[in-house]
């Protein structure tokens, strides 16, 4: 994706005026010269922090608990399905659909599916933290997709990366572009939106062992 930079009319007029003054007076004083523009700071959501790691883990646990409760109520269900609702992120419907397709073709022990009674939701908007996965404090998880970050980074990669947290994967920003959970670590030129072999295997492992433990706890609490 591209991050466009626009020059507003007032700024353009000021620049033209400054140029004319320079032509008349012969030089522009150093104090009047435009200050250099600093490069945009990376989004906090793609830097990682202890708080973010805890939020990602809490998100996975919330989704796992939600799925386990449904499975316990319907033990004959043929597959483990994580249901999502993307109605609050209409601008990213194509990226969410593509991300779902990528993950469903990559792992076998869990599937993502759009529907009601969702285990997590997608949201969109502006946030200085960038895109992130978290819980709403009431036992449910959500993925927030930030507009500006999705202009700077490949949007399908961002969406697939954040969806990886739903399935239990942590961030690993020092990884290569071929590693989906390296997020923005490899830079904005990285457009890979597919998990590598290790990430795929880890998700399958989590949804066999993790769901079994969650189911056991749900049944025990009943």
UniProtKB/TrEMBL annotation:
Membrane-spanning segments: none
Signal peptide: 1-32
Regions annotated as coiled coil: none
Catalytic activity as recorded in UniProt: Hydrolyzes proteins with a preference for Tyr or Phe in the P1' position. Has no action on amino-acid p-nitroanilides
Keywords: Disulfide bond, Hydrolase, Metal-binding, Metalloprotease, Protease, Secreted, Signal, Zinc
Any one Pfam family match given in the protein's UniProt record, by short name: Peptidase_M7
SUPFAM superfamilies: Metalloproteases ('zincins'), catalytic domain (SSF55486)
UniProt cofactor(s): Zn(2+)
InterPro entries from the UniProt entry: MetalloPept_cat_dom_sf, Peptidase_M7
Any one GO MF annotation of this record: hydrolase activity
Top-rank EC class of the record's enzyme: hydrolase
E.C. no: 3.4.24.77
Localization of this protein: Secreted
The keyword Disulfide bond belongs to this UniProt entry's keyword annotation: yes
NCBIfam families: snapalysin (NF033628)
Family: Belongs to the peptidase M7 family.
Listed name of the protein: Extracellular small neutral protease
